[in-house]
Design a protein that fits this description.
The protein is of the alpha+beta class. The protein is built from 21 helices and 35 strands. The strands form 11 sheets. It has a 4-stranded antiparallel beta sheet with strand order 10-11-13-12, with helices on one face. Helix 4 crosses helix 5 (about 80-90) and helix 13 (about 345-385) crosses helix 16.
Amino acid sequence: MGIQENFEQLPLKEFTEKAYLDYSMYVILDRALPNIGDGLKPVQRRIVYAMSELGLNAAAKYKKSARTVGDVLGKFHPHGDSACYEAMVLMAQNFSYRYPLIDGQGNWGSPDDPKSFAAMRYTESRLTAYAQSLLSELGQGTVNWVDNFDGSLKEPVVLPARLPNVLLNGTTGIAVGMATDIPPHNLREIAAACILLLEAPETSLEDLLAHVKGPDYPTEAEIITPHEEIQAMYAMGNGSIKMRAKYEVEENNIVITALPYQVSGSKLMEQIAAQMNAKKLPMIDDLRDESDHENPTRLVVIPKLKRIDVDALMSHLFATTDLEKNYRVNMNMIGLDGKPQVKNLRKILSEWLVFRTETVRRRLQYRLDKVLARLHILDGLLIAYLNIDEVIAIIRNEDKPKPVLMERFGLTDLQAEAILELKLRHLAKLEEMKIRGEQADLEKERQALEKTLGSSALLNRLIKKELEADTEKYGDARRSPIVARNVAKPLDTAALIPNEPVTVILSQKGWIRAAKGHDFDVETLSYRAGDGFLQAVKTRTTQPVFVLDSTGRIYSTSTHDLPSARSQGEPLTGRFNPPSGAIFTHLITGNAEDWYVFGCDTGYGFKIQVKDLAGKNRAGKAVIMMSEKAKVLQPSPIMKESDLLAVATLQGRLLIFPVSELPALAKGKGNKLIHIPPADFVSGKDHVVSMVVIPTMASIRVVSGKRHVTLKAMDIDHYSGARANRGYVLPRGFQRVDQLLVESES
């Protein structure tokens, strides 16, 4: 029974809700989001503090990183060593942090591959000089302390940062239900804005932005976000920043000298090479990576021709590769109230100045308390020196001299204790002079401290002076220039592909390939077992080819990347996703403004323009609406609006009428071309077997088995009639028509 009494019963809903809320609050407050005071997450703060406790300042010798990680895990951060070391590496990478906190020795990764750092047993580290701006006031009563995870040590809640590190280095993090993406900034710009806000607390955001031009990443790539968008980003606390690589032209070669933040040069080269292999960059001959120690980024793009539009090519690369990149901005942080919030620039700087003012006030008060305590001790020592013989006599003769001294000379407990702890060497006559000199110095310092603490103007002046000193010590010029640039646009596909004649061949089983030129003999081709020739069209590499299937759906594909006719091609099912049971039946090509007649063997059809054929995805586009048993006819191209359309049925009926009588549709069933009795179509006795557009002055050939007859202008008039008629019976021997063919112009 005793064991059972220790159990607490809770509904599963309440337990899971509380557990998840506890976890989410831990992630938000103690792992993922930075504190506005020092701009650090807990693991970063613990690493920096542990290194300071190990004495690893900027002037110390390097120590193995494993030693630091061990101290952090053992004393303050009971989590995985790899995660801790990765956080440490990030603070040491000058290409990741604008102002690194750790000075690393060994392999700490490279801009090309930030994760390529060596194991912690190989690398060595110490703090940078800039890290002292976070630590220099730590032992001066400036911050609160809490127990570590096992209560054996104390750790600072926040570091007493002398600079707004939350903006200088920025950070990224993903919590539960929220995230943070704070970009880095330039120290001089942020400090100038802080000083302006310190002198005039009502300063507007517009005035602050006169100093803060925008983020400043640890790369020389350009920030091309318009000023209005940057201003809106700082006003809202979120938005985006767009960066673009820098390049220059050397001896007709394009040399990329700076990449956007955290963009890998090798990955970028792969992106460009992939476009070259896909024949999308025919104007580029070669790529070279000439980066070295002196030139960390030097990627060379070698054009094929001397006369090339470099700006257009680079605009295409900006639009299609990581040469131009967007960065999300979400300035979410834990404020002085301990709550996470997305803050705008003015709010961040104002709140940090409150933190800094309180830190300086606590530092001055801590020093004042020390000065007053020392003055109190010095007053007691001076009384002892003025009555040295009597003091010595009391100490020699009394069993408990302390209470006697306190009663005789009116001393406090601290003063009496200080007198009793005096060494004999300090009884010299010169000691009295030293005490009076120290008293005078401390009194002067006490007055200055009390005056500063009593005046907000003097306190602000001190903060401003310290900001200016730190700016002079750690500040540097902006690295990421802010430049107005045109919007990057990819080149048209036609501009990227050489315009060459090509013949596209489709097999009966739906395999496609292409041969260079228009005089290719398709009879020479070989096919897979059970497959054979179906159709070929003559087109150009800059034009798409459209494939019609048996269900009336149409698909589009480029021609420049089709496999060579020397191979057996590739299956269209690799490029498209047709309905189950559908087979590919016809090829179509042409310019966007060209027209075709589409129809099915039920005797319905319409006109359609090539630009309306493009399928938006692998599933294609339903163009011909028809019954389940109907079959698609070979589409026929229209040359002129005055062209005629000839339609022949299985029973040997022919009808010719103007193409202009057909409706122009983007998709649909269309209008009746020729009348076929429904009973005849259902029974299979009659259907349309062929339709063809007859250009002006051309003739047509009617083929029936081995027989054929050519119909010239006079014959064409004989078979002409109104659209949707039954048509006219062809001569004896042509009662079962196979197809209609257009004869060359006479």
